[in-house]
Amino acid sequence: MYPSEFACGEIIKSFIFIEIIAILIQIVLYAITIYVTITSPFHYNLRFIGVFILSGYYTFLSGRLVNCFYESDIIKFSGDPNENIILIITSGLQYTFMACACSISFVVFVERFYAIKYVETYEFKTRKYLSIGICLEVTCSCISCGIILLFDIIPIIFMAIFGLLVGCASFIAYCILFTINRKRFELAMRNSDKYSLSVRFQLNESFKITTLIRNVIFFSGISNLIMGLILVFSESSTIQPHISLYLHSAFNICAIIYSIFTLLILLLSVKQYRRYFFQIRIVYAIVYPIFGRCYESEFRSSKIQRHSIADDTDTYFKILAAQWNY
To answer: Which family does the UniProt entry place this protein in (predicted)?
Structure first.
């Protein structure tokens, strides 16, 4: 016995309102993450790619938010929704970033590959063309995938399989990169006289970044597998219409959970980065109530450090003012 159309509609609307609230929260979280990325001590190319991808997520959020307003009857459009230009554009934005999400780890791998290849000069020669070229290539490929998904040019099951293959390729590429970087870093630490401080710093940074990639790839691979299966089953002609609606809602909720947990993984994977992030006041205020007990010592040390810096600065200006008054 299937649920009534009214009951089904009410359940779906409840999911949509939860999704709207989650989207509004994510708008703030991603703005904070973009600020943290811009002010972080990472290499310019890595920061550029990070800000580019994080900013691109707003295309997904804006597209999904408009669709949520339409699906919950907050905004009403006349005529056939399949022919409404606004809904077509917003759906295209979602599909485009879905394709981008499958390639995030691979993009970071490419940047780190060049960081290891040019390790001797990477700190001094920025090579901005690398990050710009990578972002342009990702944009073109993701827009192409978005158009293919939007107009159903290729069956969605094949696109889902392709996304999973990209994830597998990212994992294999990571394993190779991690092994190469670890061996070079160990060699540099054993023969410190033969390697400059900047070279050892770049190798150390790459080693920590690959740690982040490892965690992100693992979580991303499992999430993409689950979401891919949900998407394939939701498009199956053998599934009852109300089940298909539930699966679409589950897919959208999984996308929100995926994006939030990806931020947390990036924030909490490496101890040095955690301490850096915890020193930022707005991050401290938001993250401490959630993870304060898990990282109590690090929160305490970052708070002491902030107070120490503030006290030293205040003392300096008091001495300077006293000299002028004298």
So the answer is: Belongs to the nematode receptor-like protein sre family.
The residue written with tokens 């200006």 in the block is 317
Neighbours of 213 (CB within 10 A): 24
Residue 176: Cβ within 10 Å count: 11
Amino acid at 243: I
Distance (Å, rounded) from C-alpha 106 to C-alpha 224?
Answer: 14
In sequence order, the 6+-apart residues with CB closer than 8 A to the CB of 159 are: 145, 148, 149
Tokens 């609230």, residue located? 21
Q: Are 144 and 98 spatial neighbours (Cβ–Cβ below 8 Å)?
A: no
**Comparing C-alpha atoms, which of 258, 163, 248, 177 is closest to residue 220?**
258
Other CB atoms within a 10 A radius of the CB of residue 321 amount to: 10
Judge contact between 42 and 115, C-beta under 8 A.
no
Structure token digits, residue 22 = 């989650």
- CA nearest 208: which of 233, 178, 228? 178
Question: In this predicted model, what pLDDT tens digit does every residue of 223-275 receive, in sequence order?
Answer: 877 887 888 787 777 777 778 888 888 888 888 888 888 877 776 766 666 67
pTM of the model: 0.76
- Among residues 174, 255, 183, 182, the alpha carbon closest in space to that of 218 is found at 174
User: Do residues 200 and 217 touch, judged by C-beta distance below 8 A?
Assistant: no
Instruction: Report the CATH architecture of 5-269.
Output: Up-down Bundle (1.20)
DSSP 125: -
Using alpha carbons, select from 206, 184, 52, 195 the residue that is nearest to residue 115.
Answer: 206
Give mean pLDDT, residues 265-286.
69
